Amino acid sequence: MGIGQKFARLLQYLGKCSETLMYHDEIASAVRWIGQIESIMTRIHFHPNQVFDESKHVIDVVAKEYLEKSYR
After folding, report:
1. From CA 39, how far away is CA 68, in angstroms rounded?
2. Whether pTM exceeds 0.85
3. pLDDT at residue number 68
């Protein structure tokens, strides 16, 4: 299974977690489980942009959908 397929599967699983009544606990459990799998862990240096410029940055519609589901 390629990394793209793994990521798609992860997003699908997290999406299912976000639809449960106890979504916070389900997502937290999934994150703990992922943290135990060292083979998929890599260092990621995240430097968020301080300003969102619509001419440079694109909104990820799939990520936006998952975020909207998590707030319901």
Report:
1. 30
2. no
3. 87
Show the tokens assigned to 68.
């909207």
CA distances to 2, 31, 45, 58, 65 from 6, rounded to whole Å, are 6, 15, 21, 23, 19
- Give dist(CA 50, CA 34) in Å, integer: 29
Q: Is residue 18 a contact partner of residue 65, using CB atoms and an 8 Å limit?
A: no
- Burial of 27 (C-beta count, 10 Å sphere; 0-12/13-18/19+): middle
Alpha-carbon Rg for the chain, nearest whole angstrom, is 14
Indicate the length of the chain as a whole number: 72
Name residue 40's amino acid: I
Distance, CA of 21 to CA of 2 (rounded, Å): 31
Nearest Cα neighbor of 18 from 67, 64, 63 is 67
The pLDDT of 33-42, averaged and rounded, is 71
